[in-house]
Structures are given as C-alpha cells and as structure tokens.
Amino acid sequence: MSDSHATAVDTADPPQLRHHFADMEQQKNSASLGMWLFLVTEIMFFGGLFCAYLIYRLMHFNAFAAASQQLDIRWGAFNTAVLLISSVTVVLAVRAAQDGSRKQLVAYLIVTVLLGLTFLGVKAIEYKEKFEKHHVPGPTFAFTNTFDDNGKQIPVNPKEAELFYSLYFAMTGMHALHMIIGCGLFSVLAILAWKGHYSPGYYTPIENAGLYWHLVDIIWIYLFPLLYLISRHS
Amino acid sequence: MSEHATSRAFSVALGIGLLVLTAITVKAAFINLGAFNPVVALLIATIKATLVVLFFMHVKGASEKLTGVVVVAGFFFLAILLSLSMADYLTRAWR
User: Fold this and answer.
1) Class of domain A23-229
2) Do B37 and B53 belong to one domain?
3) A52 close to B (CB below 8 A)
C-alpha cells in the first residue's frame, strides 16, 4: 500500500475528487445515492406525521373539518405557487451550474432564497392570525366555530379542534424549519458559487441541495390539500 | 453527464403545468364531490409529486439505477405505514 506514493498518474484528476473514488462520475453518483437515503428518512419522518393526522381526522372528523375551514385557502394556494416556482428556479440553478455560467447560478440561488423567505413570511402572517383567533394549542386555546353539515350547524368539542391545531403547528412548523435550513443552505451555496467553487465538472452540492429543496416542496404539495382543502365539503 | 440536463423550456413548462394543477385542485375543493373531494385532492397532489420526483429530481434518466431502487423502496415503506395503519383504523367499526 505504501509503495505507490510515487505514482503520479492522477495528476489530471480535478481537486474535488476524493481518493476513494475512481472518478468524478462515481463520486457524484455516490453523493446522489447518499442524499436520497437521507431523503427517504425524511419521507418516513413526515410520513409518521401524515399518518397521525389521517388517523385523528378519521376519529374526530367534524372537529377537524370545522378547524380546517378556519385556514385561509388563499394563503395556502399562494404559498404552494411560491414553492413550485422556487423548485423551477432550483432546476434552472442546477442547469446554470452544468453550463458553467456563474452569474446565472448565483442569481437563481438568490431568487430561490427570496422565494423561500416569501413562503416563510406568509407562514408568519398565518401564524399571527392563529394567535389572534386563540387557535394556538395551550391554556388560551378557544374554539367556538361549528361544523357545517350541508347547512346544519353541529357544535364541535374544542379539545378535538385543539388536536387539529396541534398537528397543524407540528407539521407546518417542521416544514417551516426545513425551509429555514434550505434558505441557509442556498445562501451559503450562493456565496461559494460567487467565489467560483463550482464548475460543470463539479456542482454536486448545488444538485444535492436542490434535491433537498424539491423534497421540502413535495411535502408541502401534500400538506396543502390535507390541511387546507379536503375538509371544505364532506 | 450533460445529456441528462433538462432543457430550460421543459422545466419552465413543467412548472407552469404544476401551477395549473394547483389551480385545479383549489377549484375542485369548492365543488361538492362528497366522499371524492379528498380522493381528487390527493390524486392531484400525487400527480404533482410524481412529476417533481421524476423530472425535477432527475430520477427518470438517472445514470445510477440504485437511486431509483432507493426511491421506490422509500415510498414502498411509506405505503406500508399508511395502508396498514388505515386498514386497522378504517375497519374498527366493522365489529
């Protein structure tokens, strides 16, 4: 093992190539596979929350429907659009990295961060409204709305509505935390990209951060109908 | 690797398609379809998620086949989690 120090055949390799990989292609595929393994753990993590939500919705349907109808579909739809557009800008950023156009890459990364911050800003407006309506679980929680069963108003147990808001804050809060991490990630990548760290031969961090961002987008794609949409009619 | 690069026009078109699907799912939520409201909403969400996974996350056309196996395995275990839990809770009233 120690007698091969003098071999200099690898001088053509890019500096980013780690010694335990044969070539950049293999290194890139390994990084992508590792990222996907992480994303699968994220899918299972949010999957558990989704499962809990579905079970409690089944058990306390009237209260969950009444509580869900208190959410503002317009903000939810707006945020869905913002996230979908940010996914497109991420794809364009990866494409810019593949083409080696540094300025475009930095621009798309910055636009992505701004769209992420827009999403979080809207989320803050929604949370503020929840505090004002006393819809935040805890000692001050109050819920007086009724379940509208085709015009017939059925009163609901506030404790069951509180359960909906607990799950609402757990799921959207955990999603928002992922958004904050994603914004931080892309901010750092934008700085590194500006310094010229990435080239058409090496842009794995951009691509993997993109995979993360798309997964966070997919989680919202499911959160939006589950929390905002499916209880409008019953 | 450049042959796997998605064209810009395709990505933007797909993004517009996803926005149209979002508009459809919001419209559908206000139409009373009875028990099918959740079905339609989750079906559209699944179409959107599949498009994102296949084209934005480059699972379709990935050079490493193992990536596809990991993705399918991940969603398979999620399906087990959800379907077995629901098979329990949905059938408890049958006694």
Assistant:
1) mainly alpha
2) yes
3) no
- Same-domain status, B56 and B70: no
Shared domain for B55 and B11, answered yes or no, is yes
Tokens of B8: 């810009």
Contact A164, A64 (CB under 8 A): yes
Question: pTM surpassing 0.80?
Answer: yes
Interface contact A229, partner B, CB < 8 A: yes
Look at B71 and A36 and tell me if their CB atoms are within 8 Å. Answer: yes
**Record: contact B57-A211, CB cut-off 8 A:** yes
CB B52 within 8 A of CB A214: yes
**Interface ipTM:** 0.89
Task: Check A33 against B70: CB less than 8 A apart.
Answer: yes
Return the DSSP state at A147: E
Amino acid at A19: H
A31 touches chain B (CB under 8 A): no
How confident is chain A (234 residues) per 10-residue block, as mean pLDDT? 48 77 85 93 96 94 92 96 97 94 96 98 96 94 86 89 96 97 97 94 93 97 94 72
- Axis crossing angle, helix A73-99 with helix A204-223, rounded to the nearest 10: 160
Domain range for B79: 64-95
